[in-house]
Specification:
The structure holds 2 protein chains of 2 kinds. Chain A has 14 helices and 20 strands. By secondary structure, chain A is α+β, with helices and mostly antiparallel strands. In chain A, strands 12, 13, 14, 15, 16, 17, 18, 19 and 20 form a 9-stranded antiparallel beta sheet that branches. The chains are: A alpha+beta, B alpha/beta.
Chain lengths: 463, 386
């Protein structure tokens, strides 16, 4: 074991002194995220620029048995990149190039630290006919980090999780080899992450950086229509929401369906705001889709269980913005700079039960709540967020918010949901409930890929 | 007051990172973050560290102070932050700096900046008696003049700033404007002193300048520098200053409109740098462009990041002297001259002596000397006069 200083010097040799820090200020900041998990400091924060540098860092970490935690913008809020056992924290955001775009095969290859904001901007400027499934996390969120946690975005209703839209990977394995995953392993084209080969992308997606570091990513792009609109519907009949979601999905006309619920302002309490986004290349196409959506929901309009809401330009602008700034603004509802959400992936039939639980828990712990639900994959499931905001200057409120989240997660799991971007406590809950053979398989995979146990240790650690 | 405000509010930052971007998210628009790339150098990082320092979770260190002082107070963060407290962010940073100043815990370069302004009336530590050396017979302000032309420190002492000052004087004289300067009696405007958190010295400068203006009967001040414009427009009135303030580009725009200057020659392709203290701080975006567009032979092309999304030159908050963001290809001024050159313009036009200084150095480092000229608007106008 070399001394701490020797590791620092080795890191400086790899990336240059401007991009390594072992100073308190960087250790403090990278020890935490905006959520509620307790902070733990890295020993070093390193900003690599190339795959080669990442590879050398991983080899060094392997030799010295030092943990490595790759991070994007740290916006998962569940502490997934809080270095549980110290070591090297790799902030990937200097690897931010957009390397290639294939218009005819509709994919883009980006480096491991490219932000969603930069990709969106690039597509708008250079390829306005194409788009990607942008999530509603802030634009600093990286494309890779988002797929590593199985994020969702504006195209998830049609195309599934954002990780389903991956079309290839370059990964630095925990032992330092650089590995291509998908069609790019046998071809110069990055059009598929697996098929027709064995799909090895599952060894990395959803693993929170515990099995390797993604340094390049192929991402599928989709047609970007010239026009886009949002239709807003309101109901106070929570039990009808799953069916409304299904009916919207059945039209195959909507690109995105979200449902919002929040208790304030008071006029919002007890109502559910259903937003259906449509796109078209002409007003005629949009109008046709509007009619289809109206037709699908007409019965509810007639029974007055659901009403369309006219959307003023002031109201429409934030609904149309991608990503949604309103979701971020929730952090300041309590004027305290914090929010976290448990976002179980669950069958949509569970919506009423989850809403009831959310309201109960918020009342029990006296915390402010909101919920945004996103339909995923033509109604196969939804992401339901139990969101609680808190004041970072109020430790008691933070503790209550954490208890509320834990109770919601436990409930979601009991109800058949699967916890999304699970924090350490939730990972334990998941692994306890998981089929033992599946858990054992995960353990074997982890041991095979990361024999030294250096990659983001603490996460997905099966006992 | 500013200190109380930041102490009670600063924990509200969620570190979402919107503050790092321009409106279209195309690149990083926070100068220190663009330069250093550690999250600690972003606005969110800075605010979280300040809060940690307030709570006693981290000790003061030179590194902490350096992180705090690399902020150029360009206000991109306030423009982009989605939260209701967005307009207060720069005040929070200035408030924390003010605390550090009071505790005597500031980087040596900042301390030297204060000492120079306190002792010499300028941050360059040059003699007061040389302040008007550039002026070459320019008329001193006297009762009855319509405008006091306030030159500022860079315009008075910096070689490139002096060129701006001379050029502006020529244009104003050619247009028959009634004006005069303070010459060696001029004192630092204090804008940077405020942004760096030395509130006592700032107040002292405001009082001195305001008193001088009052004694001379000054009713209208026109500034060469957007930093001076900002201080006099927004801070002086709260401390008793009572006079109208204009930036010189506003005056030139009026002169063009009134046909008092008729630019004609000068066939060039230019791009324009919005100074932070003119644009984001005071919403002056159109006037400088209108002046440029009034010159028939000038073709104005925009950089991708412009107006409220303009990328700061890196000189704000005294960094035109202290230069805490220098030394790398990611230094803001170097990034920006590359961006300007990429537009195909042969001239990067500025309206601020700080931008002038930063970019003049950057074109040399980037080996763009001779390929991209740096000129201010008055130089463009003067060059186009018949």
């Amino acid at each position: 074991m070399v001394t701490t200083n020797a590791i620092y010097e080795s890191l400086v040799k790899i990336v240059g002194k401007n991009y390594v820090s072992n100073q308190k200020e960087e250790q403090y900041f990278y020890a935490r995220d905006g959520g509620l998990m307790p902070p733990l400091e890295p020993d070093y924060v390193v900003l690599p620029k190339t795959t080669e540098e990442v590879k050398e860092i991983v080899k060094l970490a392997n030799r010295e048995k030092v943990p490595v935690v790759p991070t994007g913008a740290g916006l998962a809020l569940t502490g997934l990149v809080i270095p549980q056992k110290g070591g090297i924290l790799l902030d990937m955001k200097r690897m931010d190039r957009i390397l290639e775009l294939n218009e005819k095969a509709r994919y883009v290859i980006v480096e491991g630290g490219t932000t969603h904001g930069a990709l969106k901007s690039y597509l708008q400027k250079h390829h306005p006919d194409l788009r990607h499934s942008i999530p509603d996390s802030p634009p600093a969120a990286t494309v890779v980090a988002n797929v590593v946690i199985h994020g969702q975005g504006r195209l998830s209703q049609q195309h599934g999780f954002n990780s389903d839209m991956v079309s290839g990977l370059e990964v630095v394995l925990p032992t330092g080899e650089v590995c291509l995953i998908g069609s790019c392993s046998v071809s110069s084209f990055w059009f598929s992450k697996g098929a027709p080969l064995p799909d090895l992308s599952g060894l990395f997606l959803g693993w929170f950086g515990t099995t390797g570091i993604i340094t390049k990513l192929g991402l599928k792009l989709y047609p970007c229509k010239k026009m886009r609109d949002v239709m807003l519907f309101l109901t106070d009949r929570v039990e009808l929401v799953p069916d409304i979601m299904l009916k919207l999905s059945h039209t195959e006309m909507v690109e995105d369906v979200t449902i919002s619920a929040q208790p304030l302002p008071l006029r919002y309490k007890g109502t559910f705001w259903i937003m259906a986004y449509i796109t078209g290349d002409s007003e005629e196409e949009l109008e046709f889709k509007r009619k289809m959506v109206w037709g699908a929901l007409w019965g509810y309009f007639e029974s007055r269980d659901l009403g369309p809401l006219s959307v003023s330009p002031d109201m429409k602008a934030p609904l149309m913005s991608m990503p949604s700034k309103d979701i971020t603004r929730f952090a300041d509802v309590a004027k305290g700079g914090g929010f976290q959400y448990a976002g179980p992936i669950t069958p949509i039939e569970k919506f009423p039960a989850f809403i009831q639980k959310l309201e109960e828990v918020a009342q029990k712990y006296n915390v402010f709540y909101a919920s945004t639900t996103r339909l995923i994959g033509s109604g196969h499931c939804m992401m339901f967020s139990f969101s609680f905001s808190f004041n970072r200057a109020n430790p008691d409120e933070m503790a209550r918010a954490k208890e509320a989240l834990d109770e919601c997660s436990k409930f979601a799991l009991e109800e058949g949901g699967v916890l999304w971007k699970a924090d350490l406590d939730e990972q334990k809950m998941l692994m306890e409930k998981m089929d033992p053979n599946t858990l054992n398989l995960m353990k074997k995979i982890k041991q095979l890929l990361d024999p030294s146990g250096i990659m983001n240790p603490g996460n997905w650690e099966a006992k | 007051m500013i200190q109380q405000k930041y102490v009670s509010q600063i924990h509200r930052c969620f570190r979402c990172g919107y503050c790092k971007f321009p409106t279209d998210y195309s690149s990083f628009n926070c100068p220190p973050y663009r330069r250093f790339r550690f999250e600690t150098y972003s606005t969110g990082g800075r605010l979280w560290l300040i809060y940690a320092w307030l709570k006693g979770e981290i000790e003061w260190s030179e590194h902490l102070a350096e992180i705090l002082y690399t902020c150029t107070t360009c206000k991109n963060c306030a423009e982009q932050c989605p939260m209701k407290f967005a307009p207060d962010i720069v005040d929070w940073i200035v408030g924390a700096r003010s605390d550090m100043v009071e505790k005597g815990r500031i980087p040596p370069r900042v301390a030297r900046f204060f000492e120079a302004v306190h002792g010499y009336g300028n941050p360059l530590k040059l003699l007061r008696s040389d302040r008007a050396a550039w002026a070459n017979g320019t008329k001193p302000y006297s009762a009855g003049d319509e405008y006091l032309l306030y030159i500022g420190c860079l315009g008075s002492y910096d070689e490139n700033g002096q060129k701006m000052a001379k050029s502006l004087v020529d244009v104003l004289e050619a247009a028959g404007v009634s004006f005069g300067i303070l010459g060696n009696d001029e004192e630092c405007c204090g804008n940077e002193i405020y942004m760096l958190g030395e509130m006592g010295l700032f107040q002292n400068l405001v009082e001195k300048n305001s008193q001088k203006f009052k004694e001379l009967g000054v009713k209208k001040v026109v500034t060469l520098c957007p930093h001076g414009y900002n201080a006099m427009k927004n801070s002086y009135p709260t401390l008793g200053g009572s006079f109208e303030v204009y930036h010189y580009t506003q005056l030139l725009r009026d002169l063009v409109k009134k046909n008092k200057i008729k630019p004609s020659r000068n066939k060039i392709k230019v791009t324009y740098q919005d100074p932070c203290f003119l644009g984001r701080y005071n919403n002056i975006y159109d006037e400088p462009r209108q002046v440029l567009q009034s010159i028939p032979a000038v073709e104005l092309v925009e950089m991708e990041r412009n107006r409220k999304d303009a990328f700061c030159c890196g000189g704000g908050s005294g960094n035109f002297v202290m230069d805490l963001l220098a030394g790398d290809e990611d230094s803001p001024a170097r990034v920006r001259v590359r961006e300007a050159y990429a537009t195909g313009a042969d001239t990067l036009v500025v309206a601020c002596p700080s931008c002038m200084t930063m970019f003049t150095d950057a074109v040399k480092t980037e080996d763009l000397d001779g390929k991209l000229m740096i000129k201010d608007i008055s130089q463009i106008v003067r060059g186009s006069l018949p």
